[in-house]
Amino acid sequence: MNALGEPVRPAWQRIPADIMSLRDYERHALHHVERASWAHIACGADQELSVAHNRAAFDALRLVPEPLPDLSNAHTRVDLLGRSLRSPILLAPVAYQRLMHPDGELATVRAAMAMQTAMIVSTLATQTIEDIAQAAESARRELGRGAPLYFQLYSQPERGTSLNLVRRAEAAGYEAIVWTVDANIKRSRFPLPPGVEAINLRGSAQQPTQTSDLTSEHILFGTPLANQAPGWDELAWLRNETRLPLVVKGILSAGAAKRAVELGADAIVVSNHGGRVLDGVVSPIDVLPAIRAAVPQHVPLIVDSGVRLGTDVVKAIALGATAVMVGRPQLHALATAGMLGVAHMLHLLRSELELAMAQTGCATLDQISAQLLVRG
At a CB cut-off of 8 Å and minimum separation 6, what does 202 contact? Predict the structure, then answer.
């Protein structure tokens, strides 16, 4: 049964005619996803204050239109990690995509290549690193276009396992490693249904978990979960082990961003993990200006957590972002209409971005500045 108490509907083979925005995909996806899976992807930490604030922080910013722009040479291209991308919109790493659709990440990556959108593949993908890369390459050959793949790494209990994942990504042609640092210690009570697994970790040592009751001596501190959490030394180790660009995801303070760059990070993802890890935490858009001021201008800043509109992309870039990532919306679109849905979702977001740029008098991304913003 789905979250509405109805039988789960299969994904559409076409795009529903009433979908006009990313929010429409969320509304449709409710009908296509099992109740427990929906609760897993939709939930935030504790009271979900961080989830709500991620949106409120974007909504509190107002745009100042500029009439009569010269759009004769307008475009949304951006240089990122050594490649020119069609737009500053990326697909964030999202786990367990077969919860949404039988094709899972294979459908998403085909959509990403069709829309020339960089995709970050999760450690917790339900398709192998190699199969996703092969699907991307097949789509590139068929379409004559595409975009890079990046691999998102969760640190594993043994560094050898982490390094094996990195080596597999390198061999498969991934173009960057995105190391996530904000979610190794978090609550999770979701049991995966049969047929869905983190296939790239099959046979690896299990991540430590922790449960406690009134008789336990330890709750979190002093347990393997806390003792094995990655530290700054692991960033230095990763930097030494790969020549690929290294992106650190999950930074919310200027000090941490500065230190990550000093230890070899090539880019930073300013993120609170979509509000899923810690409640009451700052929104990335709140701290973005301070982080931009703390690191060299050539270091790209990517923002996620709450991006739903083309105007959100403009606001993030105006405050110092190089690009943005979308997470949950790709799942909503995947559940609703599979590969077509994800491609259409990306088209909608880019269409909104171009309209917002035109209305604010910006023909290119480098013309977007904080002067376009007023806090409401």
Answer: none
Mean pLDDT for 296-301 is 98
Average pLDDT over residues 209-215: 54
The average confidence (pLDDT) of the chain is 92
Task: Say if strands 301-303 and 267-270 run parallel, antiparallel, or are unpaired.
Answer: parallel
Q: What is the pLDDT of residues 245-285, one digit of tens each?
A: 999 999 999 999 999 999 999 999 999 887 787 888 999 99
Name the DSSP letter for residue 181. -
Could you say which DSSP state residue 72 is in? T
Strands (DSSP E) contained in the chain are: 61-63, 78-80, 83-85, 89-91, 119-121, 149-154, 177-180, 246-251, 267-270, 301-303, 323-326, 373-375
Strands 61-63 and 373-375: antiparallel
Burial 69-94 (b: 16+ CB within 10 A, else e): beeeeeebebebbeeebbbbbbbbbb
Q: Is 254 left (phi over 0), alpha (psi -120 to 50) or beta?
A: alpha
Separation between Cα atoms, residue 271 and residue 259, nearest integer Å: 16
pLDDT band at 53 (very low <50, low <70, confident <90, very high): confident
- The answer to whether residues 174 and 149 touch, using CB atoms and an 8 Å cutoff, is yes
Tell which wins on pLDDT, 46 or 233: 233
Give the Cα separation of 43 and 222 in Å (integer): 28
Per the DSSP assignment, residues forming a β-bridge with 247 are: 178, 267
How far apart (Å, rounded) are the C-alpha atoms in residues 105 and 275? 23
Strand bridging mode 78-80 / 83-85: antiparallel
Under a CB-based contact definition with an 8 Å cutoff, are residues 269 and 302 in contact?
yes
Contact 339, 107 (CB under 8 A): yes
The answer to whether the beta carbons of residues 20 and 50 sit under 8 Å apart is no
Q: Mark whether 273 is an active-site residue.
A: yes
Whole-structure pTM value: 0.93
Distance CA 56, CA 337 (A): 29
Which member of 28, 273, 332, 344 is catalytic?
A: 273
